[in-house]
Write a structure and sequence with these properties.
Helix content is 45%, strand content 18%. It is elongated. The protein is built from ten helices and ten strands. Helix 2 crosses helix 3 and helix 3 packs across helix 4. Strand 5 and strand 6 form a beta hairpin. With 228 residues, it is of the alpha+beta class. The strands form five sheets. It has a two-stranded antiparallel ribbon with strand order 1-2. It folds into two domains: 89 residues, Winged helix-like DNA-binding domain superfamily/Winged helix DNA-binding domain (Arc Repressor Mutant, subunit A); 113 residues, no CATH class.
């Protein structure tokens, strides 16, 4: 009986959170799978940053959102696919609030592919992270990322053995895409090896230019074209 009452209270608490139009609007803005700052979510819901921070704190406490820190910035994203499924059901309700579009301030030349510290970022980096995971060529070992045996042909072509064995990486929140790309030693190795193999060339500022060779080789492994 106690467990049933507890579940009822949890359900009631969640529905109470979702009944607020501002919170629901911010949650719906996150349905695109990206992560945004409190200020950006405030703009999407047309509320003050202070009000957004209050609502976001409650949503994180209820395990509907997770907060990812990168330097001095804090990004908020849906806590998991089940939250997205719940929100999809809400979209069937009439008169539901629609969030304002959150625009990126990143120039196209940097958004496509760029260097973030010493790893590949932008659409290229996010697509690599997402696709390698979906192909099970990349996996989590605890909090760290590692390539699996299924990626052996790719590792051999990029001559990973020249660097170091079994490099590990970590997810890094991408500034323009608000999804993760690969950082850490593995991220550095991917960038260095693709530059050495001339799949990418360094462009102006921090931009990376994909070569015809790189386009062809990435396509061979199902890692190109990049999708948003």
């Amino acid at each position: 009986m106690t467990m049933v009452v507890s579940r009822q209270r949890t359900f009631a608490d969640t529905t109470s959170l979702l009944s607020d139009a501002s919170r629901a609007t911010m949650l719906l803005a996150l349905l695109d799978g990206r992560a945004y700052t409190a200020s950006e979510l405030a703009q999407s819901a047309n509320i003050s940053p202070q009000a957004a921070s209050f609502h976001l704190k409650r949503l994180v406490s209820a395990n509907l959102l997770e907060c990812v820190s990168r330097g001095r910035y804090r990004y908020f994203r849906l806590a998991g696919p089940e939250v997205g499924q719940l929100l999809e059901c809400l979209l069937a309700v009439d008169q539901i609030a629609h969030p304002r579009r959150i625009e990126t301030s990143c120039p196209d030349s940097l958004r496509n592919a760029r260097v973030c510290y010493s790893h590949i970022a932008g659409l290229a980096g996010v697509h690599l992270y997402r696709t390698l995971l979906s192909k099970e060529w990349l996996t989590f070992t605890g909090p760290q990322l590692a390539l699996t045996g299924a990626a052996r042909e790719l590792m051999e072509e990029l001559e990973f053995s020249r660097y170091r064995s079994s490099p590990v990486g970590k997810p890094c929140m991408d500034w323009s895409e608000r999804e993760f790309h690969i950082a850490g030693e593995l991220g550095i190795l991917l960038l260095d090896s693709m530059l050495d193999s001339r799949w990418f060339l360094r462009g102006k500022d921090r931009s990376l230019v994909l070569t015809e060779k790189g386009r062809s080789r990435l396509a061979k492994y199902g890692l190109h074209p990049w999708t948003t």
